[in-house]
Automatic annotation (TrEMBL):
Similarity-based family: Belongs to the FPP/GGPP synthase family.
CDD domains in UniProt: Trans_IPPS_HT
Species classification: Bacteria, Pseudomonadati, Planctomycetota, Planctomycetia, Gemmatales
Name used for this protein in its record: Polyprenyl synthetase family protein
Keywords assigned by UniProt, alphabetized: Magnesium, Metal-binding, Transferase
């Protein structure tokens, strides 16, 4: 295969084209699984199932499983496609629940599930997707796969609970912040990569390096996303921004600002939480934005180093490029 990763940051459409060019057949199998999973429920509540389309992104987490499987060069098996679909079910469930928790109105320029159908139906639909994921994992015949998925999902829930309990002010430490994002985001990207190694029966030390790549990628992605919540453009991102500020959710950009700001700057910050233009200028003035970008780049480099155990290939290069995308998420 001669497809090469793009040399420059691409809009989401080009990123999707890149993944499709590498994984078109694989992703089609994932979509077939997802449609089969949802088909029985489409008849019972068709409008809710149709609304799930707004949560379909680049299928990044399934792509991580599939790219990792290809990069191992041990063969891509049907269980890789099944595992990738399971990971996407879990990810979609977390997005639905996140939108409820964040009180977000818009995702991909469309009303979120809870805005359209209410909190109760949204939470129950997310629960259904979680349940479907565990059900499908049980069909693999590999207890280790179920264990990995269960462990990752537990970490996601623990991270969300930690964040919810700590969202009433700015007292969170950076250590606590990292503990939260290690669960709520990195656990699933780590699991997506680890599953590829497990299904391929790769050497344990190589599977572990893949998992560590996924973990660092998830951390970089979440920090970048937290930065995007402050400096991003809602028209181009297509989702509600500024929720961390309004809900007083301590993220790394906010923690770094508070660490560097004078008392007068902190006072101005507190009185302008709903004015993102003022907030962005304050963060830029004290150097918080540049600091956080540097932290993101550090985690990107760590992620790429974990891939050095893999043979050189287009698929390893693609995993490296996905890590690099984190540094350019409209920050």
């Amino acid at each position: 295969m001669t497809i090469q990763p793009p040399t420059e940051a691409s809009p989401n459409g080009r990123k999707q084209d890149f993944l499709n060019a590498l994984l078109s057949d694989d992703l089609l199998r994932v979509e077939t699984h997802l449609e089969q999973f949802l088909s029985p429920h489409r008849k019972k509540f068709p409008d809710l199932v149709e609304h799930l389309a707004i949560y379909k992104g680049k299928r990044l987490r399934p792509a991580l499983t599939l790219l990792s499987a290809h990069a191992l060069q041990l063969g891509v098996l049907p269980h890789h496609h099944l595992a990738a679909a399971i990971i996407e079910l879990i990810h979609t469930a977390t997005l639905i629940h996140d939108d409820v928790l964040d009180e977000a109105d818009v995702r991909r320029k469309t009303l979120t599930m809870h805005q359209r159908w209410g909190n109760k139906s949204s939470i129950l639909l997310g629960d259904l997707l979680f349940s479907m994921a565990y059900h499908q994992a049980s069909k693999t015949g590999d207890a280790k796969i179920g264990e990995m998925i269960g462990e990752a999902t537990t970490r996601v829930c623990v991270g969300e609970i930690q964040q919810s309990l700590g969202s009433q002010g700015w007292e969170l430490t950076e250590t606590e912040y990292y503990s939260i994002i290690d669960g709520k985001t990195a656990a699933l990207t780590e699991c997506a990569c680890r599953l590829a190694g497990q299904i391929s029966r790769a050497k344990p030390e190589i599977t572990e390096q893949l998992a560590l790549y996924g973990r660092e990628l998830g951390i970089a992605f979440q920090i970048s996303d937290d930065l995007l919540d402050i400096v991003g453009d809602q028209r181009s991102t297509g989702k509600t921004l500024g929720t961390d500020l309004i809900q007083k959710k301590a993220t790394l950009p906010i923690l770094r600002f508070l660490q560097e700001a004078s008392q007068s700057e902190k006072t101005l910050f507190e009185s302008n939480l709903d004015n993102r233009m003022v907030i962005v200028e304050l963060f830029r003035k004290v150097g918080a934005l540049e600091q956080v970008r540097h932290v993101v780049d550090m985690h990107i480099q760590r992620a790429k180093r974990h891939l050095q155990v893999l043979p050189n290939s287009t698929f390893r290069s693609a995993l490296e490029k996905i890590a690099e995308w984190c540094s350019v998420r409209e920050c």
